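dumping this here before i forget
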Amino acid sequence: MPADIPESLLTEIVARALAEDIGPGDVTTMATMDVGTPCRGEIIAKAQGVIAGLRVAEIAFEQVDPQTRFEYASRDGDRVSPGTVIARLDGDAHAILSAERTALNFLQRMSGIATLTARYVEAVAGTAARICDTRKTAPGLRALDKYAVAAGGGANHRIGLFDGVLIKENHIRAAGGIGQAVRLARERAHHLLKVEVEVTSLSELEAALDARADVVLLDNMSVADVAAAVEAAGGRCRLEVSGGVTLENVRAFAECGVDYISVGALTHSAPALDISLEISVPQR
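structure:
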């Protein structure tokens, strides 16, 4: 995992998920096999995609039984095909089966996000636009969701409300207009923060340009209006497209000459990648 996700956070996230699933004990596993039953397993991709979350899955098995051996056969960011072995396991069947669902839930979700991100990145290849995520992440899993976007070749937008100024429609209304909102942000935010403001029309874009916003987010605009906005801005600020972006139209937006395209679907609507665990118990 990247250095900006502390191991302690990963441990905490996984521990909560295991507690939710296992509770006081895995009654099925306890009822059907003896403790200490040796087990070997392979985690296998059942669909084409991009892998993300192997360390998170490894932590799940480790937390249930530190003696479980987890061997990487792939790395995050690897492209896999159906039948690709992603990882191998050796250990107590009780531990491996108890951790299985939690480990796969993380791995499937994160790999699904990485896979969808990679499709968007491929769709804009050769343009200057960068595909970005948003804050539309699963509560409590933002660090993992954004990591998965990066594994798929995308870029991370701000992590939360604390690390970037993004003035949206309701901020503008409360402040009394685009110019006033940008002015107040420049006065009150520290000098290392860029000021981005959301606009929904070309007239609002002009107000944002007059206020000297660093970045302007073109919200739910048509491709034609985005092209006109790029021409009107004339390089005076960076431009981001957001809203209504799909795999079918993302290249058209990118070819307008924008700098960023943010896609909430990367994290709120990515289908999980089909991944399974297949085990075998050696003959005794």
